[in-house]
Amino acid sequence: MKIDDILKRLTDRYGDRLLKVERKSHKRAYIDIYPKEIVDVAGYIFRELGMRFNIASAVDELERLEILYHFSYDPSGIIISVRTLLNDKDNPRIDTITGVTPAAWWIEREIHELFGIHFDGNEDLRQLLLPDDWPKGVYPLRKSFVVPKRDSRKS
Q1: pLDDT at residue 6 in the model
Q2: Residue by residue, what is the 3-state secondary structure of the chain?
Q3: Which CATH superfamily is domain 3-144 in?
């Protein structure tokens, strides 16, 4: 399967539910969707197109948060990144894709912890990386994060 075949199948199925389709090269494309579409689109890519979920990543764009879900078609090395924007930075939420692929569980925990994005339906968003005494509501990969000053008396 070639990248044009994948993009055609996606646009045929989802039409105007895809906000943007951007082919970067013969092996790389980005698809922008509304957050409410993530489970359906990820499920189609994973189950129907036979692509593997690689990882998800998040980006703080100051006025909103972005999540990218990266899928690969291993026989040809094609990567499709599904991008969605969360505009409510005070309460960023999106449905979990762990029902599509349980492999998303770990990275959703990381994104939740480091960016404060809540994945609705993921029943295990407990802390994974930060120290046990890390303050609640402080997300170190957000651009608003300020490194706390160390008390030199404790060094």
Answers
A1: 97
A2: CCHHHHHHHHHHHHHHHEEEEEEEECCEEEEEECHHHHHHHHHHHHHHCCCEEEEEEEEECCCCEEEEEEEEECCCCEEEEEEEEECCCCCCEEECCCCCCCCHHHHHHHHHHHHCCEEECCCCCCCCCCCCCCCCCCCCCCCCCCCCCCCHHHC
A3: NADH:ubiquinone oxidoreductase Nqo5 subunit (3.30.460.80)
Q: Distance from first CA to last CA of the chain, Å, rounded? A: 58
Dihedral class, residue 51 (left if φ above 0, else alpha if ψ from -120 to 50, else beta): beta
User: What is the domain partition of the chain in residue ranges?
Assistant: 3-144
Structure tokens at 54: 């690689």
Q: Which residues of the chain have a pLDDT value below 70?
A: 148-155
Predicted local distance difference test score (pLDDT) of residue 3: 97
Q: How far apart are CA 148 and CA 135, in angstroms?
A: 11
Question: Would the pTM of this model clear 0.85, i.e. be above it?
Answer: yes
In this prediction, residue 41 carries a pLDDT of 98
